[in-house]
Design brief:
Elements (H helix, E strand, L loop, with lengths): L4 H7 L5 H13 L3 E3 L5 E3 L2 E2 L3 E4 H22 L2 H14 L1 H14 E2 L2 E2 L5 E13 L3 E8 L6 H17 L1 H7 L6 E2 L4 H17 L9 E5 L7 H13 L3 E5 L1 H4 L3 E3 L5 E3 L3 E3 L1 E4 L20 H11 L4 E3 L2 H6 L2 H9 L12 H8 L5 E3 L2 H10 L5 E4 L8 E3 L1 H9 L9 E4 L10 E5 L2 E5 L2 E12 L2 E2 L6 E10 L13 E3 L1 E4 L1
Amino acid sequence: MKNTPEALELITPLLPQQVIEDACEWAIMHGVAFKQADNSARHCPFSVAPTTIKRPMYQHLLKVTPLIAKLVSEVSEDHRFLQHSLNKMSQADPFFSLLMAMHKQVHGDDEQRLKPVRQPLLLMRTDFMDDRDLGAKVIEFNGIAAGMAPFGQRATQLHSYLKEQWSEYYQQWSVEQAAIPADNLGMEQLAVGIATAANKVKQQFVDGGKATFLMVVQPNEDNVYDQHLLEVELQRLGIRTVRRTFAQLSHQLSSGSNQRLMLDGVGAIDAVYLRAGYQYSDYCAPELNEAVCCHTLSQTRVFIEQHYVAMNATISQQLATSKTMQMVLTMLPAKEYLRWGLSLKEAELVKSVLAEMKPVNANTIEWFNREANKRGWVLKNQGEGGGHCIFGEEISEKLQTLEPQQYDAWALMQRLYPHEREKPTVAIRDGKQTIVEDLISEVGLFTAHYQGQPVTDYAGYAGYLIRSKPASENEGGIHSGKGILDSLVLVD
């Protein structure tokens, strides 16, 4: 009979309060925290011991993920293909209609093509789950606001600290005591990629001083520490960093000579990284009282793209990492990938980790309601972050409410059922410990490419983020959901 969490607490003593307090203080001291409304900090939830992954699977992901990023990088610069493939979806989703209009403004349409000025810097996180039967499969591409690489690296460091400082309790909850931690330099390597791109832009001009990095952020952001950790690492590499919201940038940006992007009070900008812009609300400014909603702030993003600056995410990259484009690429034969510079062997490797996806239309709705195993699918819209997935019987209910003109904003994707951790673990949230018996993990691998070329010390790979959650929970986000930070150890 399966042990309940209550029974496990009786069998295995929980951690002493001193261990919990030490771990939480370590987390806050090292920036693994969210900012609170009263300017205090709350530590991110975390596990006390890492999860395992088989070494061959880990090596497989390290090999395939930069290839996915290479493919997406090339697709994002194929503007005719983007507009053709995503036209119907953009008509069905109001936010992507805005993005598509911005894309056509920057790059033209089928009748007119403009040469882009911005230099694409693809900072991408590809999220996987290791399905019990299918192996590792992609959940989604994240090409805009793909953050938390610093938290990923810090989680690995936290587990190393607990192993050294509180070995007895760490070993008590370790799945495999002899396992080797997987190296994780996510914060450092993402900074290397950004610094490389910023310096390359800087070299195109004769102005002196440090290369300057601009992070576009949301107002009243609570996930600031992950962002600041990256900025500190960039500063260590000799990059000047500044932060602004879209509203601030709407009246602070200007054009310098040779299409140089200029920021009031700062000077020339070499690299821009969007941690905002992935949802409609990021462009809404009620105080502007605009006749057309979101015009000013969306035009600020267009203005940035009309300058010679390294940029993530470009409008093209955001379109290329949409759920619909993931579906399009999944449904294409491997040989079609050759047009974007992959070899057939590389294409087949990418195809091997793409889970089946289906468009929503009258035929698939009829098929789903009549003969599909409803537990084997998940319904997704184009939204980023948690709260955009529908499971099981609720899929049929949702499909019934959709109008035909809304179909193209949605997609069906094969649902993944990853292995549960072989041993219960302790989750620490808000300074309190809880035993989790059925923990499953989502593996996010970071990559960095500039102008389509890898810009990290590891051929484009830039570290990982592990988010674990109870198998019974659908929402596994660290920021919003039941997820906890975790790390990896390798087993044979």
